[in-house]
Amino acid sequence: MPMKSSRDTRNSYLLKLSIGSNNAKKRIGLLTKSIASILTTVWIGSPLGSLKIEYLWGNTPAVNCLQLEHNEGVLESVDKDFNLCFAASGDIRNMVMTVNGLPDNYEGHCKILLNDRSDLVSTRNILILYALLRHGNPPELAAETAVHLMYSAALRSSDSSELFHCIKTVYGDVMSVYQSPMFVSFISRLSPNDVRKKSFPIRGAGSLSIAQSAVKIFGEPLAMLRATHTLNDSRKAMHDVMLSPHRVDYRDRYLSGLQPSHRLSFLRFRESGVLLHFADDVGSETFQDPNRLLFTASGKWVTMDNANPLSSWDVNEVLKTGQAYGLDHADIYGCLFFHVKAQFTEFARRVEKFHIDIHVSQLDAHVASGLLQKGELNPDLFGISPAFDRIETSNIADYAGIPSVLQDWSAVLNRENKHAVVLVYLMNWVMKRPGASFSMMGEGMGLNLKGSTNVKVLLERTSSMLGVNFRTLLRNGDIQRAPTFYNVLENVDVFLDNHKQFQDHLNSEGISNVPKLYKLQLRPRNRIYPKRFGVALGARPDALPSVTKTEFYNIYIIGGCNPGDRYLEFGLSGIH
């Protein structure tokens, strides 16, 4: 589950720019004292408030972890069995995209492990999946409800009824214990290792099974599901975070980079809390009930103030879907609603048509790996010697390190499939390497714009993508107040060539020992997801983004992708 991004934690530094004329030098000199705050106070800043923050909405576009056309082959995979593992899932989007990447006429058996250590995240995933996949509702209606359960702060009465039904089915036995006079006695007998396991029939030939900590279920998740706060109270709690007056500067900086229509769409979503297109009513007469899956037991908003569903999906594809449904690009959150609904609908139909089993576990990824290696994590489904064709590890390596991730997961990789791969995502490495980002280039060194062709090119190329003449901007006597200046500095890393710094980081992680220790190798060219945003799949490791102005805007501005993020693929040794 992605944690705090490198944009959230940039260190301050002193950037010294000079560009020829004395007047220009003086003007730039005025920036030296404020440039640090400009680059460190991006609009998201630090999480607002002292509550426990949960990352309920992914901050990177959904990934199809199969990409069969670049790996096993589509025709060759029609009757192939696949085992897929999402070791720190966060939400369900990557699983949905991956299942939707199976052949249309798939006849194999697909087994999926969806794991996350957060009790709240796991509970949300279970209830959203059950609402989407249970027998009864047509896939399209179920998908619409699932979209609102995942992203909307308020629900229609039909959505609330569905959520109540799912809670009763999945957690009814737990609820009855909670209401029993023997509750305290029951809880006192539970040990931290006690696991609650259940299985539910779903569409098609598969099943949905779950395994959660019995102790943790009786904590925040159950209290949230039983909460009684009103819509007005919950909406106020959402506004206190998402529209906080203390954060208006951060929001305004973000909004300054958006197209006017997208600003309106963004603010409408923030105000209503409902993901829907402009033509539909998002008022309290239609969306009457708070979504219990987005508020704490006391009614507090759970996510960070920079949480944005648009960051979870490929904006280019979102806009294409919206256009197919007759929406204008201006209604970008409406486009997102139809895109997610379409993905969820297709996912539900495939589960109904194919043989797909899904197991949701609530474990630390290291613990999950250990149980798999012992054959103790749902052996009825995965066997006593599990072998996964894809293992997606999110950004665990940012905190545990690449060697630790590979040590845990290489042991359960399918060695019989030459296309099997462990996927590693890095988002915070830039903070550890001087020169890896524009801000770190200034750490301890004065950058001279006149004498540094690279810096000059970076600033001018980024400005061009934003429709700004940087030299004209520099002649602005009050440049530090210019929103466009913030936008340029915030996105200058997009075209930064930091391949050497990244290789240094990998070397410091002991990447050269991977073949010997884990019988794996880093793929020189990715076949699942591009190494960095804005480059093509299969591009050289040192490739820089090659994007149009529209793509730049969709990926980095409205899409919010971090230029420093990297995707690594570790496949079997000897297989390129």
Strand order of the largest sheet: 4-5-7-2-1-8-9-11-10
Distance between the termini: 28 Å
Whole-number count of domains:
2
User: What is the approximate shape?
Assistant: globular
Characterize the biggest β-sheet.
9 strands, mixed
What level of helicity do the residues show? 40-55%
Radius of gyration: 24 Å
The class by helix and strand makeup works out as alpha/beta
Average per-residue pLDDT, rounded, comes to 87
Strand content: 5-15%
Number of strands: 11
Contiguous low-pLDDT stretches (5 residues minimum) are 1-51, 443-453
Helical stretch tally? 25
Pfam families: DUF4470 (PF14737)
Protein name: DUF4470 domain-containing protein
InterPro entries: DUF4470
Domain DUF4470: 56-154
Descriptive labels:
nine-stranded mixed sheet; disordered N terminus; alpha/beta; single chain; 2 domains; 40% helix; 576 residues; two-stranded antiparallel sheet; globular
Task: Characterise this structure.
The chain has 576 residues and is an alpha/beta fold. The chain has two domains: 6-46 and 438-495, no CATH class; 78-386, no CATH class. 40% of the residues lie in helices and 10% in strands. The chain has 25 helices and eleven strands. It has helices spanning 22-29, 35-40, 93-99, 119-133, 139-151, 157-178, 183-188, 214-217, 220-225, 231-242, 248-256, 260-272, 315-324, 332-353, 365-373, 379-382, 397-400, 402-409, 438-441, 453-465, 470-474, 483-491, 499-508, 514-518, 549-557, and strands spanning 82-86, 109-115, 154-156, 195-201, 207-213, 287-290, 355-361, 390-392, 421-426, 520-522, 566-572. The strands form two sheets. It has a nine-stranded mixed beta sheet with strand order 4-5-7-2-1-8-9-11-10, with helices on both faces. It has a two-stranded antiparallel sheet with strand order 3-6. A hairpin with a 5-residue loop joins strand 4 and strand 5 (207-213). The model is unreliable at 1-51 and 443-453 (pLDDT under 50). This is DUF4470 domain-containing protein. It comes from Lentinula edodes (Shiitake mushroom). Residues 56-154 form the DUF4470 domain. InterPro entries: DUF4470.
